[in-house]
Amino acid sequence: MLENFVETRDLVRTFGKKNDVVKALDGVSISIREGEIFGLLGPNGAGKTTIIKILTTLLLPTSGEAYVGGFSVVKEANKVRNIINLVSGGETPGYGILTVSENLWFFSQLYGLPSSVAKEKIKRLTVDLDFKKYATTRMAKLSTGFKQRMSLARGLLNDPKMLFLDEPTLGLDVLTAKRLRTYVIDWAKREKKGTVLLTTHYMAEADEMCDRVAIINNGKILACDSPTALKENLKATPIAKIDVSSIQADFSFIQKMRGVVGCSETRSIQTGVTSLKVMAQNEKVFSDIMSKLNEEKLKVLSINETEPTLEDVYIRLVGKGFEQAEEKANA
Amino acid sequence: MAVSTILKAVKQAIWVGWKVETNWADPLVFAIYYLIRPLAGLLIVGFIYLIGSGATGVFNPNYFAFMFIGNSFFIYVVQIMTTMGMLIHDDRSHYEVLKHIYLAPSSLWWYILGRALNGVMNASISLLLTLGFGVAIFQGLLHQQIPINWFGVNFPVLALSLVLGMICFVALGFLLCGINIMTSRVQFMLSEYVSGILYLFGGVVFLPEILPSWGQAISNALPITYFLRTIRFAFLNQAGSAFQTDLLYLAVTTLATILVGVGAFKIAMYKARKDGLIDRKEEY
Amino acid sequence: MLDNLVLNLRVAYARLWVRVKGGNREPEWLVAEMFIPVLTLSAYVFMYRMLHAPPEFTGFVVIGGTMIAFWVNVLWNMSAQFYWEKETGNLEIYLVAPISRMAILLGMALGGFVNTTLRAVAILAAGILIFQVPFSLSEPVTALLMFFLTIVALYALGMLFASLFLLYGREAWHTANLFQEPVYFLSGSYFPTSSLPFFLQLLASFIPLTFGLDGIRQVVILNKGIADVWLNVLVLVVFIFVLLPLSKVALNYMENLGKKEGRLTLRWQ
Fold first, then answer.
1. Number of Cβ atoms within 10 Å of the Cβ of A314
2. What distance in Å separates residue A163's CA from the closest CA in chain C?
């Protein structure tokens, strides 16, 4: 048994040439234990999909090494492919003109499954993922949720030892997303069928599913530990949620105040309230914030201390929330 | 809708069509691409003429000119049918922009018209290059006489024929768009069907008179037949040619095509909205 | 090694099955495949009639149109297929699986072959029934040999082209477009290439279709035998032995280049 089923060492990946080079990964070193559900959490453009593409042999690293199941993704790509599968969210590969069963049978053949074995597996997977009634429906006619279930079924056909899930619940409704998450957890942890690398930018998903999470931003790993441990590290940092009755005001001054470690804001048009999540060095900082808000004639509706979440961990590391980080990256 | 809005929509559509068609290559590669295929088509028919005539020893330069002009100007049909035949698939399923264009204040009609005009532009580039290289190869290199007085072209007739012809082919293109909105089952072959039928029955490379009688009847009903006749008149200046009659028939058949094409598209758009087809994604 | 072979044969069969199944669900494709080529071909037949050319020229056009059907299948149902797979997100799935790329292409080619054969039969039927082309089947084995070698050589060339689509998008698409009419012209699809200027004949000799068409015409229209077409046979065999390994090398090279540049699964290039 390998100590680490997946390992990357100083992985670097750049795109572009000469003066227009983008560094998507900047010395990423992670290791995933066998049987683990490992999460990569970060905003859009952080480098999550790039890591997955390298580990699934779709992309070569610019420098550094990566191993899956003990095989080098660069030199032993075919051996890697024998033990992995990939499910990407947001797109559903397949042939619209064929039915779900036909598509799944076809993909099973890419892994050499005898037809009788494949048909049994397909039957079981369509039942387990609750889309058996659509087995004879053409893929083009399925809704997004059922297409993604089919995608996950496809990813499990070859009983991969390593399953890569790239934002698998992207664009799915709450129930379907929950269903898929539960299935993956059962598959990896209860049935112990394989190891999972999951990329997501949904904090709750990482929190629910992952044994360990690596937070990535701008191609660098900022932290890597279990969600509990990551949040535990923040226990010493006071976090407060402040609701202010204004959605037009500019709250950027809070970030600049002394003692503020990080601040994220969520504006609700329906209620006309902005919720500020503020992390501070000590509780006195909250009083300063309240005074400043009063000075700005902004009405505070409530202030409560909260338990740290993964988003708070992210804010602590980066200093701003996901949305703000993405806005900055896009600017 | 204000005229300025319409013109803007058409202009933007021409621009996006130009970008989609050309930004995969630098200008030289693009020019070569727009030359090579039609020139190869011209070379095929040119050599059929040379080899066929050589087998019998009877050469007819007037027929060569007839075929040369017909095949060259057929570029407009091919380009417009290809552009408009694939437009709905590309914008709806591939680039997924159709619904956004539909929802915009400037109408989808003007967008499609703009894309069609871009097809006309590209075809014009192809045509000029093909005529130039065609003359250089056949007349210059192979010493095949082409009895066309390039300085004596009847430009008013040419211009009128081209305008009517383009209106007609664009209207036909709207018919293709209408069909493709309703069903995607024939989208990849529709433009080929239309181009193929027009090529065979339109008097492009041979006189329709050698077709069987039912073929001649089809030929007489097609606007392309009169389009090419009037274009040939402009280049070949055949005395006694009833070009006014041909021009009239071209105008009449163009009008009929407009009614059919535009009418079909209008019905298709109504049905598409009713049945939710505007943003239907095909998995082809 | 045997396991690998069995796996790749399975893959080829599965991909062939997808193509045939899809084709059966859209019979209008079959109608188009049979009807559309007859239109252009008929125009060229009428041209020869207008010129009062001997009847064997009609035979040249019909044979040319028949073989072009296979060339078009190679271009669009095999080579360019990677472009479609990339755009629909399927290419990623193929590349992550432990299979040979050539197995996928073989499956696509064989699947397309079924439809193309129908197209070819329609063209031949039109030739015989409508245009009364005088075909000769005095040496059917030679005719079949020429046909088989031409097809294999064409598909090998198609695999070479397919490698372009691993890296490129629209450039490869337009390049494939460029290989239609120019190839029809150079390979003498509608007339014998012996009438072309020397330098064009030289260019044409790089296209397997040129030798295949010439050989088939000699046997089926001009009643020649194996003794007259042995050179065509030899050249086609050489093409096959050169193109097949070259296409494997090209596929590997382009895939690696695509992985290095990050363009392997990039859409809308």
1. 26
2. 12
Q: Which residue from A103, A79, A109, A116 is spatially nearest to C12, judged by alpha carbons?
A: A109
Cβ burial of C194 (10 Å; 0-12, 13-18, 19+) is exposed
Is residue B283 one of the residues assigned to a domain?
Answer: no
Taking chain A (331 residues) in runs of 10, the rounded mean pLDDT of each run is 88 85 93 96 89 92 95 92 90 83 91 92 94 91 89 93 93 88 94 94 89 94 93 85 92 90 88 91 91 91 89 78 61 57
Is B32 inside a domain boundary? Answer: yes
Strand (E) or helix (H) holding A204? helix A203-209
A78 in contact with chain C, both atoms CB, cutoff 8 A: yes
pLDDT digits (tens, 9 = 90+) for A240-299: 999 999 988 999 899 889 999 888 888 998 899 999 989 888 889 999 999 999 999 999
B24–chain C Cβ distance below 8 A for any pair? yes
- CB-CB under 8 Å, C268 with B36: no
pLDDT tens digit string along C81-95? 888 888 778 888 999
Is B44 in the C-facing interface, judged by CB distances under 8 Å?
yes
For a pLDDT cut of 70, what percent of chain B falls above it?
A: 95
Total domains in chain B come to 1
Chain C contact present for A112, CB below 8 A: yes
Query: A110–C90: do the CB atoms touch at under 8 Å?
Result: no
Residue B177: inside a domain, yes or no?
A: yes
Q: What is the pLDDT of residues B225-245, one digit of tens each?
A: 999 999 999 998 765 558 889
Q: How far apart are the first and last CA of chain C?
A: 37
Name the residue of chain A whose CA is nearest to B185's CA.
A97
Please indicate if any CB of chain B lies within 8 Å of the CB of C26. yes
The CA distance from A269 to the nearest CA of chain C, in Å, is 36
Domains along the sequence of chain A with CATH: 6-226 (3.40.50.300), 236-307 (3.30.70.260)
**DSSP letters for A120-166:** HHHHHHHHHTT-GGGTTSBGGGS-HHHHHHHHHHHHHTT--SEEEEE
Which residues constitute the domain of residue B103? 3-275
Of B33, B141, B197, the CB nearest to C39: B197
- Which residues of chain A neighbour C262 with C-beta distances below 8 Å? 13, 15, 53, 59
The 3-class secondary structure across A280-299, one letter per residue, is ECCCHHHHHHHHHHHHCCCC
Q: What does chain A come to in residues?
A: 331
Could you give the CA distance from residue A290 to residue C228 in angstroms, rounded to a whole number? 99
In degrees and rounded to multiples of 5, residue B259 shows phi and psi of -60, -45
Give a yes or no: residue B281 inside a domain. Answer: no
> Which residues of chain A have a Cβ shorter than 8 Å from any chain B Cβ?
94-97, 139-140
Question: CA–CA distance from C44 to each of B54, C53, C107 (Å)?
Answer: 16, 12, 34
- What does pTM read for this prediction? 0.80
ipTM computed for the complex? 0.90
